[in-house]
Amino acid sequence: MKTNPKYLPILLFATLAFGILLGGWLNFPGQNQFLAKNNSKNKLNKLLDFIDNEYVDKVNADTITNRAIDNILAQLDPHSVYIPPSEQAQVAESMRGEFVGIGVNFYMYKDSVAIIKPVENGPSEKAGIQSGDRILYADKTKLFGRKLPTDSLFSKLKGKEGSEILVTVYRKSENKKINIKIKRGVIPIKSVDAALLLNPTTGYIKINRFAESTFDEFKTGLTQLKEKGIKSLVIDLRDNGGGYLEQAVAIADEFLTDKQLIVYTKDKNGTIEKTIATKTGSFENGKLFVLINENSASASEILAGAIQDNDRGTIVGRRSFGKGLVQREMDFEDGSAVRLTIARYYTPTGRSIQKPYTKGTEDYMKESESRFKSGELYHKDSIKTPNTPKFKTPKGKIVYGGGGIVPDIFVPLELESSKEHTAYLLQTGILGQFVFEQLDHNRNVFKGLTFEQFKAKMEGTDLYFNAFQKHLFKNGINMSLDNNKLLVKRYLAAEFSRQLYNESKFYEIILKNDAMVKKVVAQ
């Protein structure tokens, strides 16, 4: 099956993607301590100078230097990486948990900047920007019909806090152009997507990454759920590639009692640094479940490992990614950075969950794909971690090291979707674009509906299911959805709710028949 390349994931201006390769680091110490002289370093510097000064053709010295850095780091491990200035700025912004801009979710639709939804209470919403608007001009810069790269669009819409920008939008519903002045403001990039009730006594919190603001967002959500009287809590770390170690540690501390070990690291000199829980935990006694899958990595695995090894809660899902390396960051003057692995981390029982990387980065990253072929994603008995050492928790439960966190309760992929991987298709940008086009065609169909009325409307019609099937065929995706009708309708309703309401409403619908959640609720 080939997916039309134009169907890339919807670009969320208020949300930036963060990958497993960059997950989990600490701040890098000062650069000066790495300037000690030796012949190898002098040789490399002399070679670069020699090329710059004497090579017969003109070359870009920065390009050669960057490639040299990439090649050096490639000899180390998959998580020691060089980040060029443009990417580093985006990642740093994502991890700060905020940026200064106009506050819109958008994507490029037929060479136009189409507004999916303005950020709630953000500058654009306050100024009058509406879902479905097309931004034609930012001040005097033309944005439509130019196929501008994403970073160029960002640069036009971002700016200093309090600065003003005049945008010209086309409003289809009124068939006219409108000039709107917007004062830029601080826009949060949420790392906690939802904090809601699964039932009257069970709370649910979804964490998409561990950024600077994650613990504060998590604590706010947990406090609200406790006020509603929850007795059990589900933390969803599926597809969470990691982030800041200390944020995962702070969350683990909320569940563990005083002096329990959360995690420890060991560097090349054998120096061990332990992180211990404090007395300040606010949910030390309620039932706890942590959801993981093959894309849960780094800081996600630290949190899951701390809960599992201390017999504090139940891990549900499939074996996690297997990243047990700690990075620190060194920034360069041009805005680029190097993230270097400086230690391994170990769960409280003493297990390293880092999977092997001796065959190179490409094989390392494809290891997760091999789990399809081995049957591991469908059968717990097929889980085979290399050299699987066994460890015992304080209560005598056997846990495994050597490659990811193995869940206490296994939930196979086939219970979540068919073997045609329909669910994976539904999580690509094609669904979001289809929903946007449907709303763009006639947004008034949903005007004035309460959320309960909206859900009833979506459950009672096959209109959008049939239209989506035709949409796939039209775009060369010959996949029949008939065997997964309920799943597809659920994802359609969830995406409509995200674009019409908010992220929390998306999860309220998507979790209704979620296989892992159903396992938890049945406990």
TrEMBL record:
GO terms for molecular function: endopeptidase activity; serine-type peptidase activity. One of its GO terms (biological process) is signal transduction. Residues 175-356 form the Tail specific protease domain. Keywords: Hydrolase, Membrane, Protease, Serine protease, Transmembrane, Transmembrane helix. SMART domains: TSPc. The chain crosses the membrane at residues 7-28. The keyword Protease applies. Pfam families: PDZ_2 (PF13180), Peptidase_S41 (PF03572). It comes from the Bacteria. Belongs to the peptidase S41A family. This is Peptidase S41. The lineage of its organism: Bacteria, Pseudomonadati, Bacteroidota, Flavobacteriia, Flavobacteriales.
